[in-house]
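Field: COMPLEX_INPUT
Field: COMPONENT_COUNT = two
Field: RESIDUE_TOTAL = 598
Field: MODE = joint
Values follow.
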Amino acid sequence: MKRVTKSNVIYSYGIRHKPVECVKTGEPLTLMTEDAFGGQIRNVEDKVERLDWSKVDGATGPVYVDTAEPGDTLEVEILDVKTESKGVIVTIPKHGVLAEKSFKSSTQTVRLNSGLVHFEENVTLRARPMVGTIGVTPKEFEVPTGSLGKHGGNMDVKEITAGVKLYLPVFVEGALFAAGDLHAVQADGESCVSAVEVAGEITLKFQLIRNRQPEWPVLETEGSYAILACGDTLDEAAEHAAGSAVKALMREHSWPFEKAYMFSSLAVDLRINQVVDPKKGVRAVLSKDFVTLESLLAA
Amino acid sequence: MKRVTKSNVIYSYGIRHKPVECVKTGEPLTLMTEDAFGGQIRNVEDKVERLDWSKVDGATGPVYVDTAEPGDTLEVEILDVKTESKGVIVTIPKHGVLAEKSFKSSTQTVRLNSGLVHFEENVTLRARPMVGTIGVTPKEFEVPTGSLGKHGGNMDVKEITAGVKLYLPVFVEGALFAAGDLHAVQADGESCVSAVEVAGEITLKFQLIRNRQPEWPVLETEGSYAILACGDTLDEAAEHAAGSAVKALMREHSWPFEKAYMFSSLAVDLRINQVVDPKKGVRAVLSKDFVTLESLLAA
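Field: COMPLEX_OUTPUT
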């Protein structure tokens, strides 16, 4: 199986970055990834004040997907997410959902084993390894891997785990895909700005859907689809997510706007992804009972 | 069992409203409730343009809870929520999460039976009857029953269903509790501004916890507690919910702020209640593994 080592890191999605690997559809690939701090924080003494911020929020790639063309949809199936056995969490003054409060920078390391995150002696959480940053390269502009948008990026959606599929719009030839920023566990919101940041590896494979694209990245889990939108505020992100869901319901059921809008009030859950990145993220979750992938990918 | 009929309706939580019933703790009580439109919309021809808005968003009550004193917490156990067999949904121009879009006012009625909501011939949803408005009377001011705040009110939390407990701060003698605005089903967000609005009845009983109060209403479900905060924007509501959760974690574990803030990033889900009422609502959901009711009620 092809493996891309974590030395192949980019800090922006941009066409100037040459592909480090090329894969065919259906061919499994492993990306080895550094943690969000580029491995600079190893111990509780390593405070964020000494961070080299140019080495933060990297993603491994870009990977060229054979025959991917602008206008296609890249289906990314996440086969496995493995983390190393030590993760790190930080607080950074003026960051996170409580940025207005006065608090100190601090660092905590946590052991990860047997599927558990050992936060404290008697406080453990179930690990739920997820991929924080995952996306493709836009055509017209370059975007930091720490940000997010219609190309994906640092979406920090806790449900991007092994077993799901993500649908991303292809903007450039080969898609130029990159991913990283694993979290051993994260809650909706990622309140303090970091989760359990950890190095590891992601195994995935690609398929292509021709000549159709989602408006925003779409996540497929066992029973539902989620539209992964963002905005400058949560309210704007919620508006984008709901608007895209209503359009999909209109296509699916041949409903007028008003009917789809009503139905969204009953059946589309608006959920917070994260409230702490350059853009806030909200997902609109629809049961597969009510929408098909076809309707989520505009012609 | 004591029953309060739906003619006993108030449109504000305020001390000028005389109690219509008095109950002791542990004594079951049924409130019969009108739908959010005060029963004015019965058919698809009944458009919102002809609504008498002074008859909208009422709550049944107020009920005096014997021996409730300011500084106490009112525990409200919801024993049953029953709805009538016909509900109504509307769109209202300039309302809802997609208020910026241009669309028409429209009305749809839906049949409710066998635990199902019949949206269309071939589109049914499972009914999940919930209480949209539930709260107590503030001391210093009067608040419309269509709004929400630390006293509860029109919170539109889809998890306020039969089987849960809600903890509300008591501000005035007797608490002066009122509830209404049942929804047969509602998704997180309540995107279009209405859910399946329906008349019905709520059966509940009260207990009192002395000399302690939650910062925001707290909802107890089987496995978790949720802090029900609000704000002028979703971002502000998220900040209030997360801030209150962090304080509870600090009390529970004797942690400094930074540690509780980190942990909230891993274990406190910030979820959208509704994004369409006068104030937006976000709940912070914590597993009972990590917090007790004691820590959610400040001394």
